[in-house]
Amino acid sequence: MSKLEQQIAGWREQMLSAGIQTPVPLEELEIHLREEIGRRVNSGADEQRAFEISVQQMGRPELLNREFNKSERNIMTKRLIASVGIFILLLGVTMILPALGKHKQRNVAALSAGASYVSLTWMDDEKFGLALGTTFALAGATTMLFGFKQRKA
Rg of the chain over CA atoms, in angstroms? Predict the structure, then answer.
């Protein structure tokens, strides 16, 4: 193993001890470190100096860990908001469908009893289910879209 590889392994151990233990962030950081080292070596720096400058530029492990934790919390918060929105949207739909079904059933019963027209009037309970369900569906759709929205910091 080359000296540079040993240094990178040691840096990786520092990251692990600072709390960056999930594979994806650690691999991303290592890829970034290797790219920085490669750029500096291509610019004429020796590997040792390129490693030192690149590590210093990336920052302390504790700060990097804090930033990754913030990013992870933001992602989880957005997923939670989107999930709640989907739940509320589905709840709204489950309120709308029975109101529509009841209205249709009442009209079918009236037609089969000999009525010659379909009633366009809605009963109070049908109106309530429709209004409440629509409110929930719109609130759920808005919440879901807010959760899915990607914000650039």
Answer: 30
The residue whose two tokens read 């409440």 is 132
CA–CA dist 26, 136 (Å, integer): 42
Segment 67-81 shows an average pLDDT of 77
The Cα 27–Cα 121 span in angstroms is 64
The residue length of the chain stands at: 153
- DSSP states along 2-46: -HHHHHHHHHHHHHHHTT--SHHHHHHHHHHHHHHHHHHHHTT--
pTM strictly above 0.90: no
4 confidence band (pLDDT: 50, 70, 90): confident
Query: Positive or negative, the Cα torsion across 69, 72, 77, 83?
Result: negative
Chain-centroid distance of CA 14 in Å reads 29
- Check whether 35 has a pLDDT greater than 80: yes
